[in-house]
Amino acid sequence: MGKQITSPVKKFSGSITIKDPLPYPDFIAWEKGFIAEEDRADKTNGEKESSMWSGVLAVVEKWELQNFDPENIPATPRLAVINLLTWIVKEVGLIINEVEDIPKG
Length: 105
Fold this sequence. Notes:
- The protein is an alpha+beta fold.
- It has one domain.
- The chain contains three helices and three strands, in the order E-E-H-H-E-H.
- A three-stranded antiparallel sheet has the order 1-2-3.
- Helix 1 (24-39) runs antiparallel to helix 2 and helix 2 packs across helix 3.
- The protein is globular, with a radius of gyration of 15 Å.
């Protein structure tokens, strides 16, 4: 069962469902999207974002956003796209780094 979250980005209102728990193959694809982003210093911002989106696509199981097609990710309007990407990255990070309370023994 995934974790459904509501977009705070007005241009892309709606929700997405992130895989939770996140299977290892998808986690690895997520990591590769960010490792690839850092590979070359000469990459354009668009190339870096494209790598990051490939990682995002691996971990989102359902897209229910207005004005957004995951098969043809928009590059504009820039601020809205960057805010959407940043929000998704943050939410996936919360799932990945979730800490359970460890009982005192």
